[in-house]
Amino acid sequence: MVESLSSWQKTVTRETILEFVEAVTAPGSPDFVPPEARIATFDNDGTLWCEKPTYIQLLFTIARLKELAAADPALRDQPAYRAAGEADLAFFAGLYPHDVQTLMQMVFDTHSGMSQGEFQAQAFHFLNAARHPRFNVPFKQLTYKPMVELLHYLKAHEFKVYIASAGGMSFVRPVSEEIYGIPREQVIGSNITFETRMTSNGPVLFRKPGLIEPLDDGPGKPVNIELHIGRKPILAAGNADGDIEMLWYSETSGPKSLQLVLNHDDAQREYAYTGPAAQRVFPLAHERGWIVISMKDDWRQVF
Amino acid sequence: MVESLSSWQKTVTRETILEFVEAVTAPGSPDFVPPEARIATFDNDGTLWCEKPTYIQLLFTIARLKELAAADPALRDQPAYRAAGEADLAFFAGLYPHDVQTLMQMVFDTHSGMSQGEFQAQAFHFLNAARHPRFNVPFKQLTYKPMVELLHYLKAHEFKVYIASAGGMSFVRPVSEEIYGIPREQVIGSNITFETRMTSNGPVLFRKPGLIEPLDDGPGKPVNIELHIGRKPILAAGNADGDIEMLWYSETSGPKSLQLVLNHDDAQREYAYTGPAAQRVFPLAHERGWIVISMKDDWRQVF
User: Fold this and answer.
1) Chain pair A-B, CB pairs under 8 angstroms
2) Which residue, of A41, A142, A201, A279, is most buried by count of CB atoms within 10 Å of its CB?
3) C-alpha–C-alpha distance, residues A266 and A12, integer Å
4) Which of the residues A114, A193, A196, A287 would you substitute to probe the B interface, choosing the one with the greatest number of B C-beta atoms within 10 Å?
5) Residue A84 has pLDDT above 90, yes or no
6) pLDDT for B1 beyond 60
């Protein structure tokens, strides 16, 4: 028999996860949860795949800005296009929260103005072809092996596993089945607006500048979980302050629930960081009994 | 062996449905569609359950207005509350499209200002307890038996069946599993806005006045299908002009698809109507080869 979660170290973290799944799935268990209520929600960036040196979707955006400037040299005078041409990550890192307007314009320039099919083909191509600057593999290979194992383990125990990403829903869906075993309809994320246009080939969905509120971050995560699932997760996993509401929301699902917070403390195999996006989540995890996963100590393997 | 779709007459309509399902599911069929792409989307009002003498959700709204006026007599001076007290359906029928502001205010008064849990309990209670004025049964029993049979038949053939209702998603979800065998996460509809509020019991979802765009009607149906499913339906069913974009969109899913349009032509067993909400759909069905279901001729039984 293959051992479950074999790329996890045999620490209390792994033991806690195994015990939780046993408690909610074993027939006759006092904490038994029927399959239809076994909902799990996972953040994506920094929880399921690598988010350094910056978000994969931002690297995609930068690559698209370069392509657009190659096609239309007049664009190169704009700061964002110039920074993209010079691979100046610091420029982009400085945009939030000081220059959200430039950031949004970048997103609209690269994520709208095409059909939904065209956009997803671009995302698919990028995730397959472009390579991570340090690990030198296609981005779609930068999923965390222990987390992917956990997704499959939950699925094998009749959990319905969703991604709840602050990033773009349409960016992740083209690869979610392949890299996580999660069908595209179980990927929730942020979205720009869409419209149905009648064409000679019938109705086609076009992507428009504009954001669908709420963004799938912070208090927006429980909102979108309700819209897409209509049930509370009994297991939630994240790594940053934007996951706090989702983690806490899962506590309200019933007597037995599990919250996981990934701590990036492994500079050697991945990165060591908390940074401004993860200031509150670790003290809160300690206070509320959420399980902190140490990448360094709890994982035998990272990728 | 129990015969499939036994409450359908043995007409060409039933035959066409059976042949389509056979063609897309039989192994080795040239039109075979793998299970993950077997998406079907059904309108709800007038397609799966009765929408006369008016929408069930409008009757719920009127009942709620009466309750609110009973608790706060000052409200009775407002026209909508007065009309609710007098069961004046004509008043409500006249609001659209001439007085959308009053209509929206009614919706916000009765559908927001409470937690999501409280609202769904109210909807559940209404659908179980209130009775249809003509048929004198609880509203949740006013589903069309042949359509429910079809939902189960599709499910048995590994279709994933969704409701795509112009009505409220949260209004239908509390009963969708029971009356249709459709789990709540497969119900798509229109929504008012939500917010996550921190309370002493953790995060709670509250319903706020305001609408989430787009409404799930007309061109909004393909948009919400993309957001919730991310695939095109290979089978779509509706009964009104607000379903046209969804029906046509399903044609673009691939070489083989099926569109069903229910014609209410049975005054004796249900109602006979087309009315202003179904002006364009029948000529278009004729033009594009969508299957028109005659309630009178194609169904052995209605409820």
Assistant:
1) 94
2) A41
3) 18
4) A196
5) yes
6) no
The tokens describing B154, both together, are 């599709």
A-chain residues within 8 Å CB-CB of B257? none
Nearest by Cα to B87 from B63, B56, B122: B63
Interface test with B, best of A171, A227, A234, A249 (most B CBs within 10 A): A227
Chain B CB contacts of A193 under 8 Å are 213
Q: Which residue of A has its CA nearest to B173?
A: A230
Please indicate whether, in this complex, the C-beta atoms of B203 and A173 are within 8 angstroms of each other: no
- The pLDDT tens digits for B150-172 are 999 999 999 999 999 999 999 99
B262 closest CA partner among B18, B13, B6, B12: B13
Q: Give chain A's length.
A: 303
- For B69-119, the pLDDT digits (tens) are 999 999 999 999 999 999 898 999 888 878 889 999 999 999 999 999 999
Local structure of A274: helix, strand or coil: coil
At A37-72, the pLDDT tens digits run 999 999 999 999 999 999 999 999 999 999 999 999
**Dihedral sign computed on CA atoms, order B129, B131, B135, B140:** negative
Give all strands (DSSP E) within A119-232, no chain letters.
Answer: 160-168, 187-190, 192-199, 202-211
Q: Is B249 an interface residue toward A (CB < 8 Å)?
A: yes
* A248 vs B203, B220, B222: nearest CB: B203
- Residue A174 CB burial class (10 angstroms; 0-12, 13-18, ≥19): buried
User: Would you state the pLDDT for residue B216?
Assistant: 96
Residues A265-285: what's their mean pLDDT?
Answer: 95
Of all residues in chain B, the one with the smallest CA distance to A252 is B202
CA distances, A9 to each of A13, A146, B45, B78 (Å): 9, 10, 53, 66
Q: Which residues 6+ apart lie within 8 Å of A27 measured at CB?
A: none
Residue B300 has pLDDT above 70, yes or no: yes
CB contact under 8 A, B196 and A116: no
- Angstrom distance (rounded) from CA B31 to CA B20: 9
Q: Is A219 in Cβ contact with B195 (below 8 Å)?
A: yes
What is the rounded distance in angstroms from the CA atom of residue A8 to the CA atom of residue A184? 27
* Cβ proximity of B214 and B228 under 8 Å: no
Nearest CA to B217 out of B248, B245, B182 is that of: B245
Instruction: Give the DSSP letter of residue A219.
Output: T
A229 touches chain B (CB under 8 A): yes
B106 touches chain A (CB under 8 A): no
Find the closest chain A residue to B174 by CA distance.
A230
